[in-house]
Amino acid sequence: MSRKKTPKSKGGSAPATSALPAAKGPRPVRPETARAGPEAPPNGPPQPGRSSLGGGGDIYDVAFKVMLVGDSGVGKTCLLVRFKDGAFLAGTFISTVGIDFRNKILDVDGMKVKLQIWDTAGQERFRSVTHAYYRDAHALLLLYDVTNKASFDSIQAWLTEIQEYAQRDVVLLLLGNKVDSAQERVVRREDGEQLAKEFGLPFMETSARTGLNVDLAFTAVAKELKQRLTKAPSEPRFQLHDYVKREGRGASCCRP
Ligand SMILES: Nc1nc2c(ncn2[C@@H]2O[C@H](COP(=O)(O)OP(=O)(O)OP(=O)(O)O)[C@@H](O)[C@H]2O)c(=O)[nH]1
Ligand SMILES: [Mg+2]
């Protein structure tokens, strides 16, 4: 995990330094974009919607924070870019420095749900920065890379960390990414399923490259969070496990 560390320049939103939780250690740094302003990430419980402020242009009913976690190189940034922009970041791997975020508003059963998605650095040296953000996350997408056994073996350690720092009722989804790389695959789908079962997690395989199950992962989380907040007693409960099982597509469906 000792890769060259250079900030990426993707032109997305960046955390406002004034809104950072009291983190020890290195601060999230994106010199080209870091600024304070209306896009500053909120802390605390789900936010009620607000109309467009300061030219941000986002109108929504409710907002949630989602965090991407997992070893360096598993594809967290690529997954976020695929979801946000519908593109794949091919080319040289540039490791995330500190933490970054992007917003996306989804229509979930007629309600505008804003996801503020935090892209964390997988590198060990930024771990203390990440720790400070867990407590405000409503959902976590925990990724491993199906072509990298070490990243799969790290999942247990990530779960221990999540248990220590995240909210007890955080929504958690396990994702095995890079399934487009069939030749390089070393973690079988069944291994992912078995691990997920062991820890009672919903699980899907994804590809940031082809887009396989990427929208689904975020939509599933948005549906679960929205329901937790707005479900009428008479309404049937949204079943996240069943939803991802039913809607998830197999790796063989979408070769690049
Ligand atoms: N084939 C394939 N490559 C991918 C996929 N997702 C990411 N990659 C590649 O994997 C490398 C790492 O991707 P990133 O998204 O930067 O990884 P990361 O998890 O954000 O890494 P850190 O920022 O260091 O934590 C890059 O070279 C990507 O092009 C995928 O779904 N398929
Ligand atoms: Mg990254």
UniProtKB/TrEMBL annotation:
* Catalytic activity, reaction form: GTP + H2O = GDP + phosphate + H(+)
Q: Which InterPro entries match?
A: P-loop_NTPase (IPR027417), Small_GTP-bd (IPR005225), Small_GTPase (IPR001806), Small_GTPase_Rab (IPR050305)
Q: Which PROSITE patterns match?
A: RAB (PS51419), RAS (PS51421), RHO (PS51420)
Report keywords, A-Z: GTP-binding, Hydrolase, Lipoprotein, Magnesium, Metal-binding, Nucleotide-binding, Prenylation, Protein transport, Transport
Q: Pfam families given for it?
A: Ras (PF00071)
Bilayer topology term: Lipid-anchor
Protein name (database record): small monomeric GTPase
Upper lineage is: Eukaryota, Metazoa, Chordata, Craniata, Vertebrata
User: Gene name, please?
Assistant: RAB26
